[in-house]
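Morning F.,

Quick status update on the modeling queue. The single chain you submitted on Monday has been processed. Sequence for confirmation:
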Amino acid sequence: MKSVNIHKSVAYKVYSLSSKAMMFTILFLTLKMISCPVSAQVSQLEVDTAIFLREARELQELLVNPGKEKYNKDNPAVELIRNIRRNQKKGDPRLADNYSYDQYDKITLGLLDITEEDLKEHKSLKAYMDTTPTGQRKMLKVLLNEQASTVLYTDKGKDRKEVDRGKTSYGVSEMFDAGNVDVVLDDFLREADIYDNDITLVSNKFPSPLSSSGNLHYRYFIADTLDVEGVRCIQLTFLPRNPAALSFSGNLYLELGDTTGFIRKVTMKVPRTVNLNFIDNLYMEQFYEKDASGKRHKVKDHLNLDICLLKGTQRFSASRSSRYENFSDNMRTDLADVYEAIGPYIEIGSPSDSHGDLLTYMRRDDLTDAESNMDSFMGELRKYPLFYWGEKALVVLVTGYIKTGKQSKFDIGPINTFISTNPIEKVRLRFGGMTTANLSPHWFANGYVAYGTHDHKWKYKGELEYSFNRKKYHRREFPVNSISVTHMYDMDMIGQHYLFTNPDNVFLSLKRKKDMLITYRHLSRLQYQMELSNNFSFSIWGEHIRQEATHWLPFVTGDGRSVSHYLRTSVAASIRYAPGEKFIQEKDTRMAVNQDAPVIQLMQEWGPKGYFGSHYNLCKTEMSVWKRFWFSSFGCLDVLVKGGIIWSQVPFTELLWPNANLSYTIQPESYSLMNPMEFAMDRYGSCDLTYWGKGVLFNRIPIVKKAGLREVVGFKCLVGNLSKRNNPSFNPNLFRFPSDSETMIMGDTPYMELSVGLDNILKILRVDYVWRLTYRDIPGTDRSGLRVALHFNF
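Structure tokens below.
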């Protein structure tokens, strides 16, 4: 439907290519360009020993636990877990009227097992040599991100605000948008709350050992009593029931004699048997303290990952270290204005307070020598020609645009639209680009010209935009607050609107059937857009359209009168709300990072007949709601519900045509086996369901489990109707449906598609087999077929 394109500039939800996995692939390619030979190889046993050395005793304990003895689900360890759950709210300081603390985060990336001998041809890089957080393995540090923040809880924990008090970012992140890198790393290395039912890490949900359904996922044992920082503690060990399911193994250290089950320390790792891509080791450690009132406060949090994207290639390490202090249950007077601010994330810099610069104060001596030198790292790398030119090529591939200088004022692109094919134009040649903030931080222009070698027509688009917010580089940077004017002339493919990519994307050139149902359209639009920091946005626009008939799609009324074109003028407004959403911001699109946020969209369009020459009345309402539902280690379900209605009489080109996908790729919010203009409707309701199994079944099949395959099942259902008001059979003044379209009106039976697929093939590919469940006997339709997509995820 056109419906989901309510606010195309922010219409983003699910991409077949995971944004986090893609970003780490980009970083991996960047690191490979350093071209440092790796000669030091560490065996798998040595890796385990190095990373988990501090847990040596605990790991030995795990080996001697009662292996084949029947597990007692009511053993004393289980009762301790129940006691922790019963008392967890009593010790939660966030449930007070006010609660705050200061937080320091340090995120690093580095190439593992690099020695000074490996750098003999790159001596300038020795200044960035370091060791892993355990101190057991050598690494070349390539990225350092730091942030100091103050976290505020109010309304008994219901409202959370994070105030950015200062940040730094050095290393390979300087190649790309620093904000995008920060978003990906923060989400990928997300802070874990063990008291939640689920813990989100590396794009997956793991059941917490303290989950209310923990008995379904874990076995619990009392292993020992020992001292933790001078306090006698019970060591409670937990192991996964299904070693292949998303879960942890580790230890909880409970303060001996504490009736509330206070946890002083947590150590967890992901077993190697878990179906998790690219992660060789994942280890987490947390420390807690208890105040005089019995409230618990997390004081330290460490997370470390070993990553290997391809077997036999360079490994790298990603780690996050966090420290928390200055806990208070009073309002922060130095941040009084922040409490009323909109949105969960507020940037105020580093205001003057009793600590001076908070980032410097909280950092203290946390930086190693290598980390202290990171501000010069990229300058050293760019001295090597291979990296210098490799960086430029990689940036073009990632952004899709070619910069025209070091401080580029005009970027050329997108490169994937330079040449494509379709039945009307045969070969389509296109050239376009956009200005940047280096030319003006407020005024922006973008557009393209295109030429079809068969229809011999020039197409074009020009847009001029004024941003009320000062931009750092491009116009779509969040938050948008702008007014723009657009004029374009191009083809309009009726019933085939790709919502998450350009229609002339070269990768969509291969199609299952020929489609000639197009018109030529002039469009002029004046639009105002505004986004708020709480992820609420709205847009208001007015547009004038001249839709021109073609011999493939003629405009012929019921009484046989041919019309060369018609005019339509309308005004519209849309709203969009996605609370908690984070995304990667590219120059034309946005890719959601945390796909847990619901997305709600509503649009109303209205245009009276005679208004600026409009030939028809138009009144249209559309709405869509998207939400992902997690089932812990049993996968997740994506649900998209949409609906729309046209209240007025309109020509067939303005109807609510379902989006037909003629390509062999999997495209969101479209129907893989439907033909363009197959079903005419002026009211509709639809539901798209996609279940991602995460190996819930395949992990239990030995041979399949080894391949790391994952299940994906999809179902799409569409119901709709065409009222007599918009049916040409009852209204001779309306254009007849073209005979080539073989358009029909949907009956009481809904249109349905079912797909069953294999995901994670070779860790990068998804293949679905799709069945058309209804309206299968219509001539010229496909009943089933294979569809593919890149789906690179952890």
